Amino acid sequence: MHLTWLDSNSWSIELGGQHILLDPWLVGSLMFGNAAWLFKSDRKTPRSIPENIDLILLSQGLEDHAHIPTLKRLDRQIPVVASPNAAKVVKELGYTQVTTLAHGETFTLPQQLEIKAVPGSPVGPTAVENGYILRDLVNGTSLYYEPHGYHSPTLKDSAPVDVVITPIIDLKVPLLGAVIKGQKGTLQVAQWLKPQVILPTAAGGDITFEGLLLKFLKAEGGAKEMRSLLAQNGMTTEVIEPTPWERFEVPLAQKSCI
């Protein structure tokens, strides 16, 4: 399994013979509703769009996961697997091969890759977006991704999972509470899935931030705190902080083929 963190929530995943682009933000600014006064993020370094993408995987329909300027730049013929809200976005942009996954549903490339949608982050009063469990059907390695730290107890049925990509910080707004739950939530999901490796996401990268919202956000925790929490609970899971845009092979113990 090879991974590349592309800043923020964006990842390049090489698994099951597929090159997967996950929640890509690759061009332009990142804003919500074009409200730059509220929040805006930009890249410090211009980046090229990765080549030879086999699949786009989208967990949410919000701009920091289904980034419209990026999706407009990508080839509309690339297959997309998406949450129902994200599927609406790419269909409106003209993508021709869109698979919508509700919770519990699975997308499979026979003898290569399986992607299962699991409950993820709540959006609004009723909607719950997707997390994903990806499995390499050749060597059995697996990965779980949820970008806001909302982990469903149903994950217990999928244990063990080798790699967890999720926030390891808490990001709080006064009076509203945590918008990202990365400390206790990550410890809990580690206890459920018993991963070999945890990788943080939603933690910035080679990017800048500005806007009124920054005055109210409060971040707590980090890699040091997470390693301490894991050790206190008798877990040997490794926490790896990837360098943005540097491809690396995840250090995993060998597994038997499934």
Automatic annotation (TrEMBL):
Q: Which organism is it from?
A: Tumidithrix elongata BACA0141
Which protein are we looking at? Answer: MBL fold metallo-hydrolase
Recall the taxonomic lineage recorded for the source organism: Bacteria, Bacillati, Cyanobacteriota, Cyanophyceae, Pseudanabaenales
State a single Pfam family of this protein: Lactamase_B_3
